[in-house]
Amino acid sequence: MAVILVTGAAGFIGAHLSAALLARGDTVIGLDNLNPYYDPALKQARLDALIGTAPGFSFHRMDLADHDAVAELVQSRPDITHIAHLGAQAGVRWSLEAPFAYTAANVTGHLAVLEAARRHAPGLRHMVYASTSSVYGSRMDGPFRETDRVDRPASLYAATKIADEAMSSAYADLYGIPLTGLRFFTVYGPWGRPDMAYWLFTDAILKGQPVRLFNEGRMLRDFTYVADIVSGVMAALDHPAADGGHRLYNIGNSRPEKLLDFLDILEELLGRKAIRELVPNQPGDVPNTFADTSAMRRDFNWQPSTELRSGLGHFVQWWRGYFG
């Protein structure tokens, strides 16, 4: 049985990961600050669903940027064997409005976890952390490979994640901490984030409001269902590099979908037509994401199994149950 610190445990992916870890018998120490970037009630509802599911879950409300508090928590649990560092300030567009929130959570916060891991986690076997497909910048080619250059981020959010990858590489080399970064590609599913397209589109369609299609809908996204993401995170978490070094992997569906086709499927599932509003591209948005996941298949025997229509069906079913 592993003892796993999950940062961002009240977040979309963090809550799903925590539930899966608890289901297989692991002990989960959850950390989150429940910030108001989107409705904290949704984050609390995710936590409430976790608290009653299985023994072995504890929760600590704190800010990742409070490095002293993070260090004290890790020091108080010398039995920690793994860290799944998913806590971050998410969202590309908001990084243009609140840049210091991103450097605090994603740079200072990431460093706080790295420092706590190397100073206060003597039994640590592996730390996995969340990166993003946004590091690849504005590209129309593909698939994106881990060996591609990532020195032209299109947003501050992406820049902070590139910084996380660089810091992690340095800490692995300096201190021998086994570290694995996972570049997530457009995650969707039940309990999702209200700032993401699938949520915004569903809400607008059901309210009879216009669906805003940025770049006039001419976007491709490698939509990846949350359960597939979680299975990949767990596979990586269980298999640190033999040399204790730093690795990077894409984790996506490896099948870009047209945004307009994505909207067509949502319309069918909801039984309503969208009012489509074509608008220009937003600063920071990229036109295309496309994951090469051959490394994940090779090293962890992982591949996604959820088709877009099925995954959106699960999301719509959850939506109707949650909102009534």
Question: Your description of this structure?
Answer:
It is a single chain. Helices cover 41% and strands 17% of the residues. It has 324 residues and is an alpha/beta fold. The strands form four sheets. A seven-stranded parallel beta sheet has the order 3-2-1-4-5-6-11, sandwiched between helices. Strands 7-10 form a two-stranded parallel sheet. It has a two-stranded parallel sheet with strand order 8-13. α1 (12-23) crosses α7 (226-237), α3 runs parallel beside α4 (99-120) and α8 (259-270) packs across α10. The protein is globular, with a radius of gyration of 19 Å. The mean pLDDT is 95.
Name a few traits of the molecule.
324 residues; alpha/beta; Rossmann fold; seven-stranded parallel β-sheet; two-stranded parallel sheet; 10 helices
